[in-house]
Amino acid sequence: MQIIRTKNELKEAIRSERKLGKKVALVPTMGALHQGHISLVNLAKQHAESVVASIFVNPTQFGPNEDFSKYPRTEKEDIGKLEAFGVAIAYIPTIEEMYPEGSITQIHIDKISEELCGAFRPGHFNGVATIVTKLFIQALPDIALFGEKDYQQLYIIRQVVRDLDIPVNIIGAPIIREKDGLAMSSRNRYLSEQEQKVAVSMYKTLSNAAKELQQGKESDDVLLTAKELLLHAGFIKVDYVELRDATTLSPVKNAMKPARLLAAAYLGTMRLIDNLEVTI
Ligand code: AMP
Prior knowledge:
Blueprint: E1 2-4, H1 7-19, E2 24-29, H2 35-47, E3 50-55, H3 75-84, E4 89-91, H4 95-98, H5 117-120, H6 124-139, E5 143-147, H7 151-163, E6 169-173, H8 193-214, H9 219-233, E7 237-245, E8 259-267, E9 270-278
Parallel strand pairs: 1-4, 2-3, 2-5, 3-4, 5-6
Antiparallel strand pairs: 7-8, 8-9
Adenosine monophosphate binds at residues 29-30, 36-37, 39-40, 146-147, 149-150, 173, 175-176, 183-186.
C-alpha cells in the first residue's frame, strides 16, 4: 500500500493506476477506523480494482465549540487496517496541504444544509461539501463510497455532485452496528460503560418508533414519545427526532413512500446520530 501525503503525489499515483486500466474508488474518512469504514472499503473493492482511502480530520466541518482537537487520531493503527483490507493508496494530507494559506473558497448548500443536523451545526455541511469536492478533484475517482450512518451527508454529497456536474458515481452503504445495535462511530471509544448503555437506547428507541410508524400510528405522537424516551434513558439533550422522505429528505407525516427516521442527541458532551429505514 502506498502512503501519500501530497495532492501532487496522489495525482501521479492514481494516474499510474489508471494506466494499468484500473477503475478507482475513493473512500473518504476522518480516521480512527472501525468496521463501518472497513465495510466501505470492502464494498469499494467490489466496484473497482484500485481503492484509495483518505484520512483527514477536516477542521472546516467542526464548529468553534466542537471536538476538533479531541477527535481521535490513530494513524498508525489506521494504516495497518487499510493495508490489511487491500487498500492500494492511503491518502493522508496535512491541513496545510488541503487548506494552503489564503484559502477562502467554500461550497454553500442551500436549504437542506440548514435542516436536521445543519440546524444545530451551522456551516458543518458546507465544510463537508468543500472537503469532499476537493478530494474528488484531487483524486478524480470513478466512484466514491459513503455510509448511511451520516444519511444527511450522503444526501448532500449526491446533491453537490449533481449540481456541480462532478463526474463521480456515489455509492451509499448500510450502517454497521455493534451487536447491541449501537451504530459504530469513531467517537464511541470515548463513551464510558454507563454511557454505552444509554447510547444503545437510541437504536432501541428508533427501532420501536419505526415499528409504531409502520403500524400506522400518528407520526407527531411517535416522534414526541421517542424524544421523551431518549431523555428518560439518559440523553441530556435531544436535537431532533424526525421523519423524512428517504429520497428527498423532505418532512413527511405517516409516510406512504419509503421514509427515514433520523435522530441526534447529546450524551454528556458527545453528540450521537443515528437513523433507520421506515417502510410502510
Ligand atoms: P467518518 O470517518 O466518521 O467521517 O466516516 C467516514 C465514512 O464512513 C462516512 O461515509 C461515514 O458515513 C461512514 N461510516 C461511519 N460510521 C459508519 C457505520 N457505522 N456504518 C457505515 N458507514 C459508516
